[in-house]
Amino acid sequence: MATLQEDIERKRKEIQTDGYSMSIGEFIRMYEDKELEIHPEFQRFFRWSSLQKTKLIESIMLGIPIPSLFVSQRDDGVWDVVDGLQRLSTIFEFVGVLRSEKDEKLPPSKLLATDYLPTLQDKVWKSDDAENSFTQSQRLAFKREKLDVKIIKRESDKQAKYELFSRLNTLGTSLSPQEVRNCILIMVDRTFFEWLSELAKYAPFQTCLALSDKQGEQRYDMELALRFLAYARATPEELASMEDVGEFLTKRMTHLAQDTSFNRASEKESFEKTFLLLEQSAGESAFRRFNVDKQQFQGGFLVSAFEIIATGVRRTLGDWIEAGFTDASRALLLGKIKTVWQNQDFRDYSGAGVRGTTRAAKLIPLGEILLKP
C-alpha cells in the first residue's frame, strides 16, 4: 500500500503548472487571435450585474489586486479558461471585443457610478462623445495593467482542469452544483451537455417533477436527469462505496460523456418510456409524499421519492414494457408508488438526517424490488 507521501508525489507529477503576470492588452490580443477560449456559453450560468462589472473595471483602474486567473493549455496550444470567465468577459465586453456563442460581436458595455468613482457613470471604452469616453491615456493605462495567471500545462492529467474548475467554482460561488457541472460538461463534451439538457426538457419528466421556477433556473432538472442515469446504471458495490453524492454525479457525468459504449439514443428511449409511464400513472404526484392515513398525495417534490421510484421503474422497465402501458398497468404502478410510502425501510432511510449516500445505497436496490410489476 502506498504511503501518503508517495501518493502526494505521484499526483504532483500528474499536474504540471506555470504562472506569471500578463497585461490586459495581451489577454485582449490572445482572445481576438482565438488563442484564448472563454466559453461564451458559460454566460448562461455566470450572472454578474452591471454594478459588479463596473466594480471590476474600477478595481483595475485603481490598481486594486484582482484574484488570479486559471487556464488550461490544450494540445493545440490554446488556453482554456478554467476560472476567471466573468472577469475576462467583463473586460472584453467593456473594450468591445466580446463575442457571443454564435461568434457575433456584442455591443460594448457602459459603466455605472460607484462610491469611489461616481464619474464613471455612463463611461464607455471609446466613442465620439469625448465626455463619456475613456481618454487615450486611460485606455493605455488600462491595457497595461497586469493580471496574474496560473497555467495547467498540457502535460497534466486530462482530468486536472475539470477538478480545478469544480473546486474553484463550488467555494464561495452563487452557482448551483449542477450549473458548475454543466460548465465542466461543456468543456468535456458539448454534445453530451446538449443531449442531457434536451433530455431534461422532456414534457412528462417536467410534469412529474413539478419544480419551482428557481429550481428550474438553477437546472435542478438536469441534475435529476443525471441522477437518474447515474443511479440506474450503478451497481450495489458502487452505491455502497459512494462517499459524496455530488462528487459521484460529477465523476459519473464525465465518464458517460466520454464513454463510446454509452448509447445515447437507447438511453433516451428508456428515459422517455420511464417518465411517460410515471406521468400517465401519477402525474405531478409521482414524487410527492403519500399520506397513508388520508390516502392522498401532499407537499412538493421529494428527491428521496424520485430516487427510489424513478430508478425502480427504470431498472424494471423491461417488465413494464412487457406488461404494456395499459390502464391496468398504470393503475398497478400507482398502487406500487403508494406502497413505497408504507415500507418501513423507505421511511427509515428517506427522512431528515439521513446522508444522501446512505439513502441511495439503501433505497435504490429496494426500489427495484418494490416497483417490479
Structure, explained:
With 373 residues, the protein is an alpha/beta fold. It has helices at residues 4-14, 24-32, 50-62, 85-95, 136-144, 160-168, 177-188, 190-200, 203-209, 213-217, 220-233, 236-241, 245-258, 264-281, 303-315, 317-323, 327-340, 344-349, 356-370, and strands at 17-23, 36-37, 69-73, 79-83, 146-152, 289-291, 296-298. The strands form 2 sheets. Strands 1-5-3-4-2 form a 5-stranded mixed β-sheet. The protein has a two-stranded antiparallel sheet with strand order 6-7. The two termini are 47 Å apart.
Which helices and strands occur, and which strands form pairs?
Elements: H1 4-14, E1 17-23, H2 24-32, E2 36-37, H3 50-62, E3 69-73, E4 79-83, H4 85-95, H5 136-144, E5 146-152, H6 160-168, H7 177-188, H8 190-200, H9 203-209, H10 213-217, H11 220-233, H12 236-241, H13 245-258, H14 264-281, E6 289-291, E7 296-298, H15 303-315, H16 317-323, H17 327-340, H18 344-349, H19 356-370
Index terms:
373 residues; five-stranded mixed beta sheet; 19 helices; 7 strands; single chain; 2 domains; 9% strand; alpha/beta; two-stranded antiparallel sheet
Gyration radius, in Å? 25 Å
Largest sheet: 5 strands, mixed
Global structural class: alpha/beta
Across the major sheet, the strand order is 1-5-3-4-2
Measured as a percent range, the helix fraction is: 40-55%
- Which range does the strand content fall in? 5-15%
Distance between the first and last residues' Cα: 47 Å
Number of domains: 2
How many alpha or pi helices? 19
Mean pLDDT comes to 88
Per the principal axes of the C-alpha atoms, what is the gross shape?
Answer: elongated
Query: Quick one: how many beta strands?
Result: 7
Order of helices and strands: HEHEHEEHHEHHHHHHHHHEEHHHHH
Model regions low in confidence, pLDDT < 50 over at least 5 residues: none
